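WARN no homologs supplied; continuing
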Amino acid sequence: MTNILVTGGAGFIGSNFLNLFVPRYPEHNFINFDKLTYAANLLNLKSTKNLSNYTFEQGDIANYDRVIEIFEKYNPDIVVHFAAESHVDRSILGPSEFVQTNIIGTFNLLEVCRKNWSDSLKRNKLFHHVSTDEVYGSLSLNNTNLFTEITPYAPHSPYSASKASSDHLVRAYYHTYGIPIKITNCSNNYGPYQFPEKLIPLMILNALNNKPLPVYGKGENIRDWLYVEDHCEAIWTVIQKGNIGETYNIGGNNEWKNIDIVNKICDILSVELKKNPLPFKKLITFVKDRLGHDLRYAIDSTKIKSELHWQPRETFETGLKKTIKWYLSNQKWVDSIKTGEYKKWIDINYYRR
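OK structure emitted
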């Protein structure tokens, strides 16, 4: 039985990963190691928690001693490292947590791997690091190039800088100590279980609650969007087939302006609820732009498609419809996240700080 340690498995992407692969691979043992911060939710794993090949351990990757305990207890063969502080706005307001989790936490995991994986064991081990396209900086609207695996890093926010730092640490441990690593950099994810500080779930839930739909600037910032289950399938493909020491970009081939996404959410909600979309669209409120707001991200997935034969299954339209239907059908989950953190993000005055 292969022991797979998944950090941040109660968060958005990590829980989707576990919900897909724990039942699919009963011959593997999955250990979910999560601090349970505001964006984590064990309700994300209600369909998986009672499976015999799943175990939950609460803990902080920034706590070196706790990481050692987990390694000594489970002796993981594969580490899939999702755990991260991930919201740009929060990193602007309080960068310290991002340094602790994204840099120190990644360092702790790598150090424990280095000390536990001897040269004779390394051939059967893997540290898979999940990162972001934000490390590459920003593209102009008229730039026909996309982010590739060799695009120079140019992070613009404390969040992206902390993720860039962790990427560099992972590569350094491969080149210096021979730790078997793989890195994936993905575009913007969306789908079930995403905490509503991010654009798509925030717009869905605010619209349903007749709250303002805050859009930064003129809403012209562009992102490539990737359905979360497609992302998880891509990660598993890289774990199984990717080359050690390599980086693979994972994108959805779906570039959309923020304002167009918000309008599309209003249109889909109107169809699902059999209502006129106009009352939803009247909630759209343009607010002061985010500090250092990158204009455009667009990622090139040619490498993973050509070498590993992966490609996304969902278009943006099909993925967005699935996402909206999920939020409409999971009121218990929605109720569980109505904390002070959620209330802060639906308060329009927060965006006028």
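The longest strand covers residues 28-34.
OK
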